[in-house]
Amino acid sequence: GERGAVEPDLAGRRVVVTAGGTREPLDPVRYLGNRSSGKQGYALAATAAARGAQVTLIAGNTELPDPAGVDVLPVGTARQLREAVLKAAADADAVVMAAAVADFRPAAYATGKIKKVEGREPEPIALVRNPDILAELSADRARAGQVVVGFAAETDDVLANGRAKLARKGCDLLVVNEVGEDKAFGSAENEAVVLASDGSETPVPYGPKDALADRVWDLVVPRLAERSA
Ligand code: CTP
Ligand code: CA
User: Which of 18, 22, 28, 158 has the greatest number of beta carbons closer than 10 A?
Assistant: First the structure.
């Protein structure tokens, strides 16, 4: 429908949003990556800016135009994303982890391109765990009352897995998407349930990623602490 002037309910607030997906290099020409386009994170950044926030967008390997009035910091790997988000979070009222962070990275990086060897099968790729950035942000809040939001893509038992994940991560809100062959990834539309640590569940019907972003900010705003300094 017709949209009037946007309520500046994030005026004076600093928010950090991560978007896109991390890439974990294997050698100078190859990486382990994922299918995240970054559209949902960009929508969160753009809607927060439209509502008056000062926005830092930490973008992993996206090919999208910078949203107007948003500071965009490009990153490659999960460890680079972690460093950038922890730094930006130091003075943030809210942090939204919309990025698809690689759970694992290759245990070793080959400084030269990995070559085939005639008559030999390839070596398996050994992986190690990446840090869990959302859990870390939730456990060590940079400011008292900082609101931390996670995203979860689930293929099965969406609500049960989402509830367990919210508790495990310790965040305030978890936006749970059902993903599948042609759901969510790369699409301009999204459908979700937002689970909150107070037990509430807010379903968001299928629609544009901007609309889901606005519903997320609607749930963040009443949870923001008074900003004294
Ligand atoms: N996340 C993170 N650091 C990681 C992995 C995930 O900060 N190393 C964040 C994502 O940005 C997202 C949330 O955690 O906001 C949930 O990601 P998801 O992959 O669903 O959770 P995992 O704990 O990795 O669980 P799973 O084994 O289902 O992948
Ligand atoms: Ca994961």
Answer: 18
